Amino acid sequence: MPEKSDYYALPPAIDRFSGSLRVVGWVSFWAQLVLAIISSIVLLFAGLFGFTSGPGGGANNPGTGGGLFFAICGLIALYYSVYQAFRFTRLARQLRSPTPSLRPRRADTIQVLRFALVASIVGMALTLIGAGAINGTLVAKALRQPRGIFNPSVNIEDFIQPIDLFIVQANTNTILAHFIGIVAILWLLNAIHKASQS
């Protein structure tokens, strides 16, 4: 491990960017990880309890079918984005190496950031497709709901259930987490561009 005095020998641009990369990497990592875990728990809860309740076995639940598939794909992409955010912190440590030959090149760092950006954008797109499918199903259920006096012969599956809203919330958390990752990466790309100009 390098001595503390070695850090002061770093070129100022690398010193500033590695500090930014470390801080933004950790903030992005924890924010995305917390939202990913919450979304996972909610989707697991919806899967275990929402799909088996009621006479229809949850067949009318908006979490079934394409909506749930894309929501889960977006969540998997989110866990990959969490890994990439953690990787930024390791990259920041490598940039602080006292040996210049061990530091990643600027082009390699930009390549890592761009790849992480593409992964986050793809994850957000998948999650948005899932959100569209889920919201479409909820609108259809809302339009099918009987109006006026409650009729006991009406199928309860025609009503929007609380579990439906849990699925929407999980999907919204995943979208927010991808958004945090995208903003963090764009900020880092701007920071590396400014560092190279100074």
What does this protein look like?
The chain is mostly helical. It has one domain. The protein is 75% helix and 0% strand. It is built from five helices and no strands. The longest helix is centred in the N-terminal third of the chain and has 39 residues. About 3% of the residues have low confidence. It comes from Desertifilum tharense IPPAS B-1220.
Which terms summarize this structure?
198 residues, mainly alpha, 75% helix, transmembrane
Low-confidence stretches: 52-57
**Amino-to-carboxy terminus distance:** 28 Å
Radius of gyration: 23 Å
Shape: elongated
Q: Largest beta sheet, briefly?
A: none
Number of strands: 0
Give the ordered list of helices and strands: HHHHH
Strand content: under 5%
Helical residue percent band = over 70%
What is the typical, i.e. mean, pLDDT? 83
- Provide a count of the helices: 5
Helix/strand layout:
Elements: H1 4-7, H2 12-50, H3 66-95, H4 106-144, H5 162-197
Helix pairs in contact: 2-3, 2-5, 3-4, 3-5, 4-5
